[in-house]
Every structure is written in structure tokens, then in C-alpha cells.
Design goal:
Blueprint: H1 2-17, H2 25-136, H3 141-167, E1 170-172, E2 184-191, E3 201-206, E4 209-211, E5 214-217, E6 219-225
Parallel strand pairs: 2-6
Antiparallel strand pairs: 1-4, 3-6, 4-5
Length: about 230
């Protein structure tokens, strides 16, 4: 088709330039028929191309756009699934880590820490009892000076022992005015004259200790009871 068009145009050009060369009416008519045929063919081709372009614009491109959007949606869903999976895995890891820490603490407390701490608490009781005995002992002269020196040394030893317990996260139960069954064990009662004194602590007999929020040994006390 491009060769026919070029040939026709050359012929038309030659006809326009060479007017001095006579042409028969039949040749001109044939030439015009060729031109109209070529023009119709070009218009038909333009119509087909225009139709195909519109088809691409109306059908192919939207379909591709929808397909691309669908692919992006799938990618986003995969990323969200990965993020969710990572979040679940992180929660599982945190839960497992907490359980391991609890297991470690319980193992250390029951198998290693608790027996050792109990021995230290018993030593604290013995030293405290010995200190109380020395305080109640009366003497004069050189013997009194020695007793005072012994009491001072003993108080220093008790203080050092408490420092060791504190480093092991063991603390004394704080003194309270009334009995708390969660931290106290009443070893004896004294009569109370008034109802508001019921449960009031009279004396701390043996100190109590706590380790990491757990009562290692309740404090032994003497309290009042109203009847």
C-alpha cells in the first residue's frame, strides 16, 4: 500500500508539472480512481487503528490497572501477614522468656538461694539473741568495759550480716502497729482492755524476712486480744 500511494503521488506531481504534455481523459480518470481507492484504504486503516486504540484504552488498560492493583493488594496482604507473624512470634518469645526467668528464679530460690538464706537468718537470730543477753548483763569495772566492747563488735557483725542479706535481695519485714496475717505469726496473746487494741503488736519476738515479694519467714510477735 505505501508503494501505490507513492506511485500515485508521483503521477499527480508529474501531471501538475507537465501540463504541456497532453493526457487523455481516460488516463486521468484511471488516475483519479486509483487516488480515491488509495484514500479509501487509508481512511479504512485509520478507522481500524482508531478502533483498536479505543479498545486498548477502554478494555486492556483498565484490566491491566485492575490486575496491577490486585497484585499490589496481594503484596500488602503478604506484608501484613509477615508483620502479624512477627508480632505473634515476638509475643511467644516474650512469654517464653518470662517463663524461663520465673523458672530460673524459682530454681535458684528453692534449690540454692533459700537454704543458704535460711542459714544466714538463723545466724542472725543467734547473734541477735546473744546481743540481747549481753545488753541485759550487768557488771562493773573492767568486766563492764569488755562487755561493752563485745556488744559493739556483735552489733557490727549483725549489721554486716544484714548487709549480706540485702545484697541477696532479702529484706526485713517492716514494723507494724497491728498484726498482718500475711507477714506475722502470733506466738502469744495478751489481754486487751479495749476493742480498738485487738491485734495490736506488743513485742517483736523474732524478725521476719522477705525475698522478692515472697515471705521467707513471717515475723513472730506477741499481740493483744480483746475478749
Amino acid at each position: 500500500m505505501p508503494d501505490d500511494f507513492a506511485t500515485t503521488m508521483r503521477e499527480l506531481s508529474a501531471a501538475a508539472v507537465g501540463r504541456d504534455q497532453p493526457r487523455s481523459s481516460q488516463e486521468l480518470a484511471a488516475l483519479m480512481r486509483e487516488f480515491h481507492l488509495l484514500n479509501a484504504t487509508v481512511q479504512s486503516l485509520e478507522s481500524v487503528l482508531t478502533s483498536r486504540i479505543e479498545n486498548i484504552a477502554n478494555n486492556v488498560l483498565p484490566a491491566r490497572a485492575a490486575e496491577t492493583a490486585s497484585q499490589f493488594q496481594k503484596i500488602e496482604e503478604h506484608l501484613q501477614a509477615i508483620r502479624t507473624s512477627e508480632s505473634v512470634n515476638q509475643r511467644l518469645f516474650d512469654s517464653l522468656h518470662d517463663e524461663l526467668l520465673k523458672y530460673r528464679d524459682n530454681f535458684l530460690h528453692e534449690s540454692l538461694h533459700k537454704p543458704f538464706v535460711r542459714d544466714l537468718i538463723i545466724l542472725f537470730d543467734d547473734l541477735s539473741a546473744l546481743s540481747d543477753q549481753l545488753k541485759s548483763t550487768s557488771s562493773r569495772g573492767e568486766k563492764a568495759d569488755r562487755l561493752a566492747q563485745w556488744r559493739g563488735n556483735l552489733e557490727n557483725a549483725i549489721h554486716a550480716l544484714l548487709e549480706i542479706l540485702h545484697r541477696l535481695e532479702v529484706t526485713e519485714i517492716e514494723a507494724k502497729e497491728f498484726v498482718d496475717l500475711a507477714t506475722h505469726r502470733v506466738v502469744s496473746f495478751e489481754p486487751a482492755e479495749f476493742s480498738e487494741d485487738d491485734g495490736r503488736i506488743v513485742m517483736r519476738v523474732k524478725r521476719g524476712f522477705i525475698w522478692r515479694g515472697n515471705v521467707l519467714r513471717p515475723e513472730e510477735v506477741i499481740a493483744k486480744r480483746y475478749q
